[in-house]
Give the backbone structure.
Amino acid sequence: MIAVSRAKRSSGEADETPSDETLTDRAYRAIEEQIVTLQLAPGAVISEAMLSERLKIGRTPIREAIQRLARERLMVIMPRRGIMVSEVNIQTQLRLLEVRRELERLIARNAAKRATAEERAEFAAIASGMEKAGRKNDETVFMRLDREFNLLGLQAARNEFAAGAMVLMQGLSRRFWYIHYKEAADLPLAARLHADIARAIAAADRDASGAASDRLMDYIEAFTRGTLSSG
């Protein structure tokens, strides 16, 4: 995973499609985005043929992408009945957060310890960008920087097992945020909490990174529980 350059970030340029991306990768990325942004709604029953036609990608890459999305619990494969986009369940989300809290702390502390000088500069730039997005309440920039922050954290932590576990949870977490953030989220606070982690990693402060990660997860858990009363 390679972080987006600071020049591209500051210009607001969108991520380019990786030159080595396979058709399966392309299918996965497209379907995952449509699930997370609710273009494929929770509970919708779909088929390989429908997705193949919709994305103009062959059935084999579509099938392989669906298998990956099923492992990430974004899809449910129902033999002889089709494929269903998984439902959103707050109790499932809270159980996910129990695991995510421990992993996020581990990743933040390891990134603070193992990041290169170039990666620390990237974290410092992300912190500044997050604070700016928070002040402007700019959800588009925040979500772009959040994705970059997550990828850079996994890269800098240099633990493939933690990275593999986090990848399995990212889609579910992003979809839940996308559904509820407008009614329940405090975007300026979320941006500031992310910036605190990024700045602590940039400073190579493991304890501060772990504590900042816990504060972010406290907020995310409160946000998740808050959706019960706002729904």
In short: The mean pLDDT is 89. The CA atoms of residues 78 and 84 lie 7 Å apart. The longest strand covers residues 75-78.
